[in-house]
Every structure is written in C-alpha cells, then in structure tokens.
Design brief:
This protein has 262 residues and is an alpha/beta fold. It has 2 domains: 69 residues, Alpha-Beta Plaits (2-Layer Sandwich), CATH 3.30.70.80; 136 residues, Rossmann fold (3-Layer(aba) Sandwich). The chain has 5 helices and 7 strands. It has a 4-stranded antiparallel sheet with strand order 2-3-1-4, covered by helices on one side. A 3-stranded parallel sheet has the order 5-7-6. A hairpin with a 4-residue loop joins strand 2 and strand 3. It is elongated, with a radius of gyration of 27 Å. The structure holds calcium ion (4 copies).
Length: 262
C-alpha cells in the first residue's frame, strides 16, 4: 500500500532549520508602541454619589481644569500640565471619590484588509457572519484585526511549512515564498550544483523529502492551505489573507498526496 513516507518529524524539522538556510525565524518581535493620547488631557469618572461641588474640589486639588463635563456618566474631560500627567493620574487613582482616571487616548478603526474572501475567514474575525447558512458566534476568533493594529508581519520572518508541500505558484502565495540565498546567485538555481554545500542540490525554494528533489509543489492541498493561514498575501485585493500579510514561507514537503486511511 502506498503510505506516507515515514520520516521522523524531528529529523525533518532539524533538516529544515539547519540544512535549508539556518534558523527558521530571525526577526525579534516588534515592540508594541505606546498608545497615542492627547497631551495633557485626562478622562475622569467619579462615583455616582459624588456631588458636582465635590467633583470640582477633586479637580481643584490636583490642579486640573475642566474642559468638558459628562453629567450623565459622572465624568469629566480635564486639562493638566503635560509634564504632570503621571503624577496627577497617581493622585486621582488614590482618591476614593474617583472610579477611574486615564489619558485621553486616541483610537482608530481596526485595520481591515481588502482581500475579497476575508469576510469568510471567521477564524480571523468572527462578527457573527453566516458561513454557508450557519450563523457565527461573535468573537469566537483569534482577534486578527486587533493583532494587525500592532503588526501585519515582516519579510524578515521565515516560517517553514513542513507538510504536503506548497503551491508556490498560487497568486496569494507566490510573493511570499522563501528563497534560499545560498542557491540564488546568477544561474545557481538550476546549475545542478550544491552551491551552499548544505547537501541539497538547487534547493532554492525548499525541498521535497518525498521525491528527494528541489520541487516542493503540493500534490495534496493541505500544505498550501496551511501556507495560506500562515501568510497569504494580505491587502492585495486577491483571494484570502493570512495571519501575516507579509512573511516568507519555506516549503518543506514530507507528506505525499495520500490521505490517512486510504
Ligand atoms: Ca475577535
Ligand atoms: Ca544547496
Ligand atoms: Ca545550484
Ligand atoms: Ca490576498
């Protein structure tokens, strides 16, 4: 029976990492930027039983000038000296009459890609949209838009897709496929020479451990699906979007086209 070739997974991972061009991921995670806020402005919420006169005395005690009062929610927008923001927040948060005090943060709409099939990817963002007639569960997702507000990926990060191969010609993946720099000199991709001396000849875009050749094309579909989740090109007005809009995917094929159980 034609079964999937049994190659120990650890061996494949080690080969992928060491033989095909070093560690899989090289870039440090991006540091989350400080949230943008209006300089010198604070938003304060008072306890509901605090009178307007008491609210004013709280503000006076910390040197805050009221810019706007929100009576219905017992809140206030105030202005303080820009260099006294932290100290003033400290004092307000210790005052039992104050429910909350924070900077006047500036918020923006979540980043949304223009890929036409994005609304069907409920795992990335579930707004309760129906998929094939089945209603969704709002927020049963991985909060991808929230993550995209921080980063949408980087070409400096390479992810090995160790699976059934990858359709490297796919319109949403072709721009994301890793290229081995050691086999990318002029003519080196097809010269029959192991230019980077890693034991694999012309392995310029990964390796096929099933057929032992340099074409890790997917003949099953699973590895390509996984590659799309890892990093289908995002915001390119084509098809779907990956968790990373921009990343490099290293195709490493170790499973053949046969489904388990066949
Ligand atoms: Ca969510
Ligand atoms: Ca090589
Ligand atoms: Ca070569
Ligand atoms: Ca796309």
């Amino acid at each position: 029976m034609d079964r999937t070739r049994r190659i120990p997974l650890l061996f494949v991972v080690v080969v992928a990492m060491l033989a095909l061009g070093g560690p899989v991921s090289t870039a440090a995670p991006a540091k989350k930027p400080a949230q943008e806020a209006v300089p010198g402005e604070l938003v304060i919420g008072f306890r509901g039983d605090i009178s307007a006169a008491d609210q004013k005395s709280v503000l006076k005690a910390v040197g805050a000038a009221e810019k706007k009062s929100f009576k219905k929610i017992h809140g206030s927008l105030v202005r303080v000296s820009a260099d006294a923001v932290e100290a003033t927040l400290d004092k307000l948060r210790k005052d039992a009459r104050v429910r909350y005090a924070e900077r006047n943060f500036i918020v923006h709409a979540d980043v949304t890609p223009n890929d036409p099939s994005y609304p069907t990817l409920w795992g990335l963002n579930n707004a309760g949209q129906a998929i094939k007639g089945w209603p969704g569960v709002p927020d049963a997702d991985i909060d991808a838009p929230e993550a995209w507000n921080v980063t949408t990926g980087s070409a400096g990060v390479t992810v090995a897709d160790i699976d059934t191969g990858v359709d490297w010609s796919h319109p949403d993946l072709s721009s994301q496929i890793w290229v081995n720099p050691g086999e990318n000199c002029a003519g080196c991709r097809a010269d029959g020479i192991d230019n980077d001396h890693n034991g694999y000849i012309d392995d310029w875009r990964g390796w096929d451990f099933v057929s032992d050749d340099n074409n890790p094309m997917d003949d099953h579909g699973h590895g390509t699906h996984v590659a799309g989740t890892i990093g289908a090109a995002g915001n390119n007005a084509v098809g779907v979007v990956g968790v990373n809009w921009n990343v490099r995917i290293m195709p490493v094929k170790f499973l053949n086209h046969v489904f388990s159980g066949q």
